[in-house]
Amino acid sequence: MAGAFIEAKDLRKTYHVGKIEVEALRGISFEVRKGEFVSVVGPSGSGKSTLFYLLGGLTRADGGSVVLDGDDLAALSDAARTRMRKCKIGFVFQKFNLLPTLDARSNILIALEISGNGRGDPAYFDRITELLGLTKRLAHRPSELSGGEQQRVALARALINKPAVVLADEPTGNLDSKNSEIVLSMLRRSNQELGQTVLMITHNPEAAKYGDRIIHMRDGQIVNPEEDPQWVGR
Ligand SMILES: Nc1ncnc2c1ncn2[C@@H]1O[C@H](COP(=O)(O)OP(=O)(O)O)[C@@H](O)[C@H]1O
Ligand SMILES: [Mg+2]
């Protein structure tokens, strides 16, 4: 598709646990255009996180391909794939993944260092930390922050490089409704204002509505909404 920014083609992934094989992805194909905000929903175990890892180049697929901004992830060297991850993708995880010994400010700024973007854009740092309500929390370590605050720090870290794409796996999975609203609004704002492409995985129908479009997964495949039991009757 012309203008496809993320292109997943027939993605397959099987996990081997002892003698048992778990087919987590059984042929997933879809495209996301530049600047789209797409939600991916599906019950637990449907393969959403596996898809997230493959799209972000964090795991290799057993079959199929991911093309991100014109680059086939499998064709890139490890170094080139790592560089793409650091510069082009902002990751948000359900469990925040902050560094416990660093304060909030350093947890955000470390993303600039890792990507080689130096000090970045200080005005942008001030803006996103303010929008995320973190201005008075920047000297706090993760253990001195609530779960919602930790996720807001993690989101600031994901956004600070102004990545072309933001990949979020259940970013509101551990949050109350107030914090969920802050995180989701920020994702939508950065999508609208910076034209960032956002792919957000969630099992919360309310959160999914923040996207322009919803992809439904079940048993490692994409299904029609009518086949998604969570969606029937909505
Ligand atoms: N590292 C792993 N080793 C073995 N099985 C896994 C692993 N990760 C996920 N699975 C299995 O793959 C399937 C899809 O998991 P996952 O992608 O985490 O789904 P979701 O995020 O939708 O809950 C599940 O059956 C899960 O148990
Ligand atoms: Mg998951």
Tag the structure with descriptive keywords.
7 helices; 234 residues; single chain; Rossmann fold; binds adenosine-5'-diphosphate; four-stranded antiparallel sheet; binds magnesium ion; alpha/beta; six-stranded mixed sheet
Could you describe the 3D structure shown?
It is a single chain. The longest helix is centred in the C-terminal third of the chain and has 18 residues, at 177-194. This protein is globular. It is an alpha/beta fold. A hairpin with a 2-residue loop joins strand 1 (4-17) and strand 2 (20-33). The model has no long low-confidence stretch (mean pLDDT 93). The strands form two sheets. Strands 6-7-8-3-9-10 form a six-stranded mixed β-sheet, sandwiched between helices. The protein has a four-stranded antiparallel β-sheet with strand order 2-1-4-5, with helices on one face. It has seven helices and ten strands. 41% of the residues are buried. The protein has a single domain (35-60, 77-225), classed as 3-Layer(aba) Sandwich (Rossmann fold). Bound molecules: adenosine-5'-diphosphate and magnesium ion. Adenosine-5'-diphosphate is lined by residues 15, 17, 22, 24, 42, 44-50. Magnesium ion binds at residues 48-49, 170.
What order do the helices and strands come in, and which of them pair?
Blueprint lengths: L3 E14 L2 E14 L3 E5 L6 H8 L7 E6 L2 E2 L5 H11 E4 L11 H12 L6 H10 L15 H13 L5 E5 L7 H18 L2 E5 L3 H4 L4 E6 L2 E3 L11
Parallel strand pairs: 3-8, 3-9, 6-7, 7-8
Antiparallel strand pairs: 1-2, 1-4, 4-5, 9-10
Helix pairs in contact: 3-5, 5-6
The protein binds adenosine-5'-diphosphate (ADP) and magnesium ion (MG).
Adenosine-5'-diphosphate binds next to strand 1, strand 2 and helix 1.
